[in-house]
Backbone:
């Protein structure tokens, strides 16, 4: 038995695919452009990270000469960890904003 081809369903599937591809491009652009700033627990180090996880800037407030190396390392590790978490949070938020209205193929 030959299957009938539902041209309307195929056209709709192609349209949905194109829409998903457009949303994916929008998401990729937003992830690369969106930046989050985090600070170390003692506020002495500031890191700017994109939602993709790329660290784009690091600023140290105050002098380094009087800083204990172990304490500075601890603060640096904490702020880099926070930057990773902030990037992940920003990605999830952007994903929900971009793809939140997308319906499955089964939805009317």
Residues:
């Amino acid at each position: 038995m030959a299957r009938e081809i539902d041209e309307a369903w195929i056209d709709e599937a192609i349209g949905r695919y194109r829409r998903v591809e457009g949303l994916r491009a929008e998401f990729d652009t937003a992830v690369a452009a969106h930046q989050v700033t985090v600070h170390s627990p003692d506020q002495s180090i500031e890191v700017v990270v994109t939602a993709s996880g790329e660290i784009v800037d690091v600023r140290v407030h105050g002098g380094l000469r009087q800083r204990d190396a172990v304490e500075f390392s601890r603060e640096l590790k904490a702020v880099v960890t926070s930057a990773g978490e902030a990037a992940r949070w920003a990605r999830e938020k952007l994903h929900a904003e971009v793809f939140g209205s997308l319906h499955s193929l089964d939805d009317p």
